[in-house]
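Course assignment 3, question 2. Fill in each field.
Student: A.L.
Task: Predict the tertiary structure for the chain below.
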Amino acid sequence: MTTLKKLPESEFELMKIVWANPSPISTNQILEKLDGERKWKPQTVLTLLTRLIDREFLRSERVGKERIYYPLVKRDDYIAFESGDFMERFHQNSFANLVSTLYQGNKMTDEDIAELRKWLDEKE
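Answer field:
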């Protein structure tokens, strides 16, 4: 497996569709799922899919006139990579720093704090 790299937002949007649907998924299915969400032309989607193949996030095959895609990177693996990168870049790998930032920014509710306390108690 290749070393993961951060995906641009547009490519990540396509990967979310691939991950959320049974594999393989066709170009037409991807376009249908995008309908209404993004105003991308089919050629734009094809370009983004080609980039994902080049980055080794997808593998593709031609089946008749259709092109189908298989994910090479699991969603959970990519989310773990992004989360680790975020923690390192913005919080010096400190969970306490992250929680403090969320708390000070009023992003944590009392329910969030209670859930975090319960989670920490279970880890002890």
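Instructor remarks: The mean pLDDT is 89. Residues 19 and 72 are 10 Å apart (CA to CA).
Grade: pending
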